[in-house]
Write a structure and sequence with these properties.
The protein is mainly alpha-helical. It is 66% helix and 2% strand. The protein has a two-stranded antiparallel sheet with strand order 1-2. A hairpin with a 2-residue loop joins strand 1 (96-98) and strand 2. The two termini are 44 Å apart. 20% of the residues are buried.
Length: 266
Amino acid sequence: MLKDVTFGQYYPTTSFVHKMDPRVKIILLIAYIVAVFIANDFIGLAAVLLFLVLAIAFAGVPPTLVLKSIKAIIFLVVFTFILNVFFHTKQEGDTVLFWVVTKEGLLSAAFLSARLILLVTGCSLLSLTTTPVNLTDGIESLLKPLSAIRFPVHELALIMSIALRFIPTLADEADRIIMAQKARGAAFDSGNPLKRVKALIPVLIPLLVSAFRRADELGNAMDARCYSGSKNRTKYKKLTLSYRDLVGAIVSAALIVGIVFINIYL
């Protein structure tokens, strides 16, 4: 049921994207998100899609694994589509298909749904190609200037890393609890939506207990290893830039410039 959750999972391989600096990958993701939002037509989104396809190809990640991230937001995508179809602001000259549904409303709904899908798949690709440790190091390095104003940069990066690490762990735990409940006769796939939501209550309670237990065990493990935050800590691996990062930066810059060109001239 929850095995399709890909956000927070890491796909181990030695690809072009995997070997890139995590700091650069985070910056490129921000540039990718900017490109998705500044694209104001389907041609611009097609350019973003081409960039995403190239990134998946160079990442060596199975496309089906990336597309699984869409399953987690399928309800949100459908809800966004329906909402924009029926509540699209009708303007003079719009083509009415039936009732309040217009051709322009359908195009707007499809555009926003495609934008949402591109955002989720792009973000999932970052977690699939970057280990939680490297992601923590990248975030900490990028936010390092904030330490001048005593901002807890290391602690924030650590919290984000632990959260990402435990997403697939808790998903597996929820699956085990659901299978155990089904073995006892619980029904999660039948009845109206309200009954299905109520059926999840016996799952949420043991899942929360398990999450708190894991958090307590992790805290004890960190105390046993004398963890004291960022004070006097050194790093085993130093982050270094390579030609891969330069190539990624050039391609991302070309994407944004191309979308701006499309918005102006097409």
